[in-house]
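Hi support team,

I've been running sequence recovery on a batch of backbones for a student project. Most finish fine, but this one hangs at about 90% for roughly twenty minutes before it completes. I'm not sure whether the input is malformed or the queue is just slow. I've pasted the structure tokens below so you can try to reproduce it. Let me know if you need the job ID as well.

Thanks,
M.K.
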């Protein structure tokens, strides 16, 4: 579908179209389109830009990732459709492994998503041959690779369902979520919940990764002082402030 670039919601419509095309190509599941709608609704409320608390969380995520012994980025259908190149670039900067992990898992879909990632520049993509199960999960999300998510100390899980976030935290891993819904179970249970839009969040984390590689002391300090509940509270306050400002309406000019 041709979207006129003059449309006031051009970016949003292009993103939607991209997801629909990825659904037609068997990369995104229909449930992924629903998940996107939920994300977009929260993005409206948050003002469709990175908030100050999200930026702080993105820097903390970068600090955990650069200091990790075995970091892994988990990729599902929506992430592959929206941010394959950004994920590959971030993985190279850390450096981290990439593993395809799906809720609605089928082997052909895993293969297609791995192909998207390779086309985006990934040399090695895990997840095709899982050899372990994440304890406490009955869904196919439990299937993981020992060389990847199963053995990782830090896992980045964008657009996740809360179950696996909780299960990975129970395994003792540092879990970094990217979820526009600050009330989701992922946001509440992740070690570092990033309440921001995926395509804004991943490049921001990448920028901080490069910055912290040059300043390892700063990375150590951030990890030591990271305050997850304080940061999440700041996200709720930001949302509250946004809604209160909107409720007050446009400011009257003083004479
Ligand atoms: O590809 P699969 O089979 O692994 O399935 C992927 C989906 C997304 C269907 C699966 O993980 C799922 O059902 O996720 P949930 O439980 O709907 O959670 C997705 C979360 O991501 C929701 O809380 C949305 O608000 C949020 N979200 C959606 N789009 C974005 C987003 N957050 C950040 N950026 C987005 N673009």
């Amino acid at each position: 579908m041709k979207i006129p670039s003059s449309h006031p919601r051009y970016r949003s419509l292009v993103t939607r179209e991209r997801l629909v095309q990825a659904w037609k190509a068997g990369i995104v599941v229909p449930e992924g389109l629903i998940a996107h709608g939920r994300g977009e609704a929260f993005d409206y409320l948050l003002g469709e830009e990175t908030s100050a608390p999200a930026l702080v969380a993105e820097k903390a995520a970068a600090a955990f990732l650069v200091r990790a012994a075995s970091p892994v980025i988990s990729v599902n259908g929506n992430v592959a459709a929206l941010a394959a190149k950004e994920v590959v670039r971030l993985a190279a900067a850390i450096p981290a492994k990439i593993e395809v992990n799906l809720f609605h898992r089928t082997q052909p879909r895993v293969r297609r998503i791995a192909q998207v990632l390779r086309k985006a520049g990934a040399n090695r993509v895990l997840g095709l041959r899982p050899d372990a199960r994440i304890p406490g999960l009955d869904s196919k999300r439990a299937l993981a690779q020992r060389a990847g998510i199963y053995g990782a100390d830090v896992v980045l899980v964008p657009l996740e369902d809360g179950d696996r976030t909780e299960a990975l935290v129970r395994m003792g891993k540092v879990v970094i979520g990217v979820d526009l819904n600050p009330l989701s179970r992922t946001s509440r249970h992740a070690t570092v919940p990033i309440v921001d839009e995926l395509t804004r969040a991943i490049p921001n984390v990448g920028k901080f990764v490069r910055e912290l590689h040059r300043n390892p002391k700063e990375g150590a300090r951030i990890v030591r002082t990271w305050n997850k509940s304080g940061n999440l509270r700041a996200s709720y306050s930001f949302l509250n402030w946004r809604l209160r400002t909107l409720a007050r309406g446009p400011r009257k000019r003083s004479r």
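--
Follow-up from support: It reproduced on our side and the slowdown came from queue contention, not your input. Residues 60 and 222 are 6 Å apart (CA to CA). No action needed from you.
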